[in-house]
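pls design
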């Protein structure tokens, strides 16, 4: 029983301490709030005083007067005696016109209200920054591209017999509206000297015109037969396709010829050995590359581990014979050792010489290793 009573006393003492701490905490918070209120009232008073002072300075001189302010009376031998000394003090002369009085009190009330409002809002206002992420919606155009390829395979192929012409026009009915069917009627006639086959259709771009209409640019490769002569030709066209919310499609603009892209005037920068790597190191790198590219065509993935880091160059398993480096440049890029090389291979299957281009990043450990390839 003794230890139980001790335990009870200890628990009571602990609870009293906790209550004491809570009370101290509440008192502290109350004092802080009082201090905040006093500071706020002081700010309001200062703002009102400054406001009134500004008003006084802007008033015309007619409304400003000076009055004589007597010094306070002094008590001498139990009697109060006034002082003949006086000092002048600037005061506001209130016009008998009551409109000025009303205006003054209205401005004073507004300034006090604004001061209180600003102080409360400055304490309670929390600035919240919102980050808006605009996600780009990717549309699935696979069905649209397949539709255009099927259409182009029919539209750009024909034969010059009545049966084939009729068959072609019938097939186009499921792609074209009536207006375009009438427009294209008579496009191919029996006196047309050519017969055309479509070898391939490549979609170059799909552009949104509206929510339901798309502009498609494509290239069609055709085999053109005229008598015994056969030629191949590639042409680029643009067309417009309407797709409704159910996925049904319709060609709304006939294929219109579009320009094939010309050759760009851009000249890629050719790297040159600039002397940032000494001759001894260049010789080591070249010996390493000759060894590697000789083994590379038939090397397995396990064998490449000794030359390539993390499989940056995969095993290719080709029947190539190494024929040397056709071009080479060794230089430093930052703290990385770079090698740009043209590698000549004799292709034993195609019986041609192939030139492969590599941009390599090399590292020297126990031996040289390719750590990055482009």
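designed seq:
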């Amino acid at each position: 029983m003794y230890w139980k009573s001790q335990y009870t006393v200890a628990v009571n003492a602990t609870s009293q301490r906790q209550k004491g701490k809570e009370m101290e905490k509440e008192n502290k918070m109350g004092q802080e709030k009082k201090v905040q209120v006093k500071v706020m009232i002081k700010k309001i008073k200062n703002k009102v005083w400054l406001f009134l002072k500004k008003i006084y300075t802007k008033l015309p001189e007619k409304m400003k007067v000076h009055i004589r302010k007597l010094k306070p009376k002094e008590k001498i031998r139990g009697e109060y005696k006034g002082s003949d000394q006086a000092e002048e003090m600037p005061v506001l002369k209130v016009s008998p016109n009551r409109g000025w009085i009303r205006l003054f009190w209205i401005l004073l009330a507004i300034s006090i209200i604004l001061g209180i409002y600003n102080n409360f809002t400055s304490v309670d206002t929390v600035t919240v920054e919102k980050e808006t992420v605009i996600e780009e919606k990717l549309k699935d155009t696979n069905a649209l591209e397949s539709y255009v390829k099927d259409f182009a395979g029919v539209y750009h192929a024909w034969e010059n017999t009545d049966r084939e012409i009729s068959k072609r026009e019938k097939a186009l009915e499921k792609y074209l509206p009536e207006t375009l069917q009438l427009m294209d009627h008579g496009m191919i006639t029996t006196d047309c000297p050519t017969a055309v086959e479509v070898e391939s259709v490549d979609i170059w771009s799909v552009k949104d015109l509206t929510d339901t209409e798309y502009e498609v640019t494509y290239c069609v490769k055709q085999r053109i037969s005229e008598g015994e002569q056969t030629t191949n030709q590639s042409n680029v066209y643009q067309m417009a396709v309407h797709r409704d919310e159910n996925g049904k499609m319709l060609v709304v603009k006939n294929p219109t010829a579009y320009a094939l892209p010309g050759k760009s005037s851009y000249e890629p920068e050719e790297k040159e050995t600039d002397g940032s790597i000494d001759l001894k190191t260049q010789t080591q790198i070249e010996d390493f590359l000759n060894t590697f590219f000789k083994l590379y065509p038939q090397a397995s993935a396990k064998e490449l581990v000794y030359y390539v880091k993390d499989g940056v160059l995969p095993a290719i398993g080709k029947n190539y014979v190494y024929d040397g480096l056709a071009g080479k440049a060794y230089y430093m890029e930052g703290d990385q050792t770079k090698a740009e090389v043209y590698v000549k291979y004799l292709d034993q299957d195609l019986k041609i010489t192939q030139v492969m281009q590599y941009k390599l990043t090399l590292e020297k450990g126990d031996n040289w290793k390719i750590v990055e390839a482009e």
